[in-house]
Amino acid sequence: MLPLLLMLLAGLQYRLWVGEGSYAHINRLEQEIERQQIENDKLRERNRVLAVEVEELKTGLDSVEERARQEMGMIKDGETFYMMVEPKNRPAKP
Asked: Where would you find this protein in the cell (predicted)?
């Protein structure tokens, strides 16, 4: 009877410390949940920024005009476009 109880105790201890549902397994799952929550928060913030940008594009022409100027180099009638070019590194004069 005693050997049977010892085997049962050993089996339960194994499951408590090593098997599925053990302290180590639960700890790993909690860490994974924490990492996923951080990733979800980053994605929520990105989605919030994109939603604000979409709303601005839908309602205001200012943001559309700004994008056209920055991304496509567009200008209005009557405006003059000036491009500032940085000089390349020149060798030092002796």
From this structure: Cell inner membrane
The vertex-24 CA angle with 18 and 29, nearest 5°, equals: 125
Host H or E run for residue 8 = helix 2-17
Task: Report d(CA 72, CA 48) in Å as an integer.
Answer: 25
d(CA 80, CA 57): 26
pLDDT tens string 20-64: 777 888 899 999 999 999 999 999 999 999 999 888 878 877 777
Q: Exposure of 37 by Cβ count < 10 A (0-12 exposed, 13-18 middle, 19+ buried)?
A: exposed
Three-state helix/strand/coil letters over 43-79: HHHHHHHHHHHHHHHHHCHHHHHHHHHHHHCCCCCCC
Give this prediction's pTM: 0.51
